[in-house]
Amino acid sequence: MGDTVYLNGEFMPLEKARIPVLDRGFIFGDGVYEVIPAYSRHPFQLPEHLRRLQNSLDAIRLANPMTDAEWTRLIHDLIARNAGEDQSVYLQVTRGVAKRDHVFPNDARPTVFVMSGPLATPAKDLVDNGVPCITATDYRWLKCNVKSVSLLANCLLRQSAADAGAVEVVLFRDGYLTEASASNVFVVRNGKLLAPPKNHLVLPGITYDVVLELAPRA
């Protein structure tokens, strides 16, 4: 990870960042997140990522703690404070600290955390030759369009792939392909590009939209 992170209004070294144990993100997984790649220190498709963040916040009835302009300044500032031309920016917003109660607190202040690390890209050999995958039943919740920090099902599914010596697990629900544990899935068949429709059963991937934009040109 990068040396500098942002937590609730302050930049600090990663090792000094702390949250209370009663933060609802820790207790309930009550929060959302985004991961934004930055190429040559430029965030990729940032307006689209911020739009998806807003959609996730709206879905869990949590007010956005920042405007798009404030998010943009913060993300550019954090990138500038960390090493590496290509970075992966992770941001997370939780409902904040409150007594343990399933009902939303009235006075909790959202916890905002942003960090940056090296951007991992697939090796050329993997791009050229592909990777092994397995398939499994998609048993996640029914609001996969929300980029929730509650990722236990995804972790279990991805671990099943690792246990089988595979890289990813392609998921099916009621006989239809949805996505993978941490990826959108496209299929090329008979010269046609096929993709699951956007709905509540898949995450609306930013790369998904870019692929659909670029595909007609190819």
* Binned strand content: 25-35%
* Shape summary: globular
- CATH superfamily label of the largest domain: Aminotransferase class 4, branched-chain amino acid transferase, N-terminal domain
Characterize the main sheet.
6 strands, antiparallel
What's the CATH architecture of the largest domain?
A: 2-Layer Sandwich
Euclidean distance between termini CA atoms: 36 Å
Computed over alpha carbons, the radius of gyration is 18 Å
Helix % is: 25-40%
Output the number of helix runs: 6
Low-confidence sequence ranges:
none
- Total number of distinct structural domains: 2
CATH hierarchy class name of the largest domain:
Alpha Beta
- The chain-level structural class is alpha+beta
State the order of secondary-structure elements, H for helix, E for strand. Answer: EEHEEHHEEHEHEEEEH
Count of extended strands: 11
Strand numbers in spatial order across the main sheet: 2-1-6-5-3-4
Mean pLDDT across all residues, rounded? 96
* CATH topology type of the largest domain: D-amino Acid Aminotransferase, Chain A, domain 1
Describe this protein with a few key phrases.
6 helices; 6-stranded antiparallel β-sheet; 3-stranded mixed β-sheet; alpha+beta; D-amino Acid Aminotransferase, Chain A, domain 1; D-amino Acid Aminotransferase, Chain A, domain 2
SSE blueprint:
Blueprint: E1 4-7, E2 10-13, H1 24-27, E3 31-39, E4 42-43, H2 46-59, H3 68-81, E5 87-94, E6 111-118, H4 124-129, E7 133-137, H5 152-163, E8 168-173, E9 176-180, E10 187-189, E11 192-194, H6 206-214
Parallel strand pairs: 7-8
Antiparallel strand pairs: 1-2, 1-6, 3-4, 3-5, 5-6, 8-9, 10-11
